[in-house]
Amino acid sequence: MRGRPTLVVAVTALGLASCGSGSSGAETLPDVDVIRITDGEVISASDLDGPAVVNLWATYCAPCRAEMPAFEQVANDIGDQVRFIGVNEGDDAASAQAFLDEVGVTFDQYLDANGALTDALRVTALPATVVVDADGAVLTVHSGALDEQGIRDLVADHLTAAP
Question: Contact 94/109 with Cβ under 8 angstroms?
Fold first, then answer.
């Protein structure tokens, strides 16, 4: 039992560093419903146009909050070449919108109320970032928070249309 508190501390520290880890086995964005936060319109994730960077996040996730300004900056810089989309997992629209207003994010946002999108993408931790080509093919899934340069690198590495 002596080693158990150390294990608990180590697991807690990992959880705080990024709300976990995960990977994707999906080949395209799945045909699951997401809800546009601004107007409540329900669409299929498979209908989200690419090329795109899809940021999966939640209001309870501290690393998600930390990376949001970087996503907003890159979206402002190259959003005419690559679509930026946020997908909140598990919150209601009012809570998600209050969070977005607080952190100053303005790019398209959707709700994955029951986690169907994150489940289909086999994402087990937030934040996660999915890069999708113009045909909807998932090119990569990055688990964990990104800074501005990390976002730019993902785009440059996976989407040829981006700087």
Answer: no
Helix (H, G, I), strand (E, B) or coil at 25: coil
Which amino acid type is present at position 71? F
Beta pairing class for 52-57 and 83-89: parallel
Cα–Cα–Cα angle for 47, 145, 16, rounded to 5 degrees: 125
Tokens 């080949």 correspond to: 27
φ, ψ for residue 29, nearest 5 deg:
-60, 135
Rounded Cα gap, residues 138 and 53, in angstroms = 10
Residue 149 tokens read as 């340069």
Spatial contact of 17 and 89, defined as CB atoms under 8 Å apart: no
Smallest CA-to-CA distance from 126 within 81, 70, 28, 60 is with 60
Neighbouring residues of 109: CB distance < 8 A, sequence distance ≥ 6? 36, 37, 38, 85, 86, 87, 88, 96, 97, 100
pTM exceeding 0.90: no
Q: What is the pLDDT of residues 94-125, one digit of tens each?
A: 999 999 999 999 999 999 989 999 999 999 99
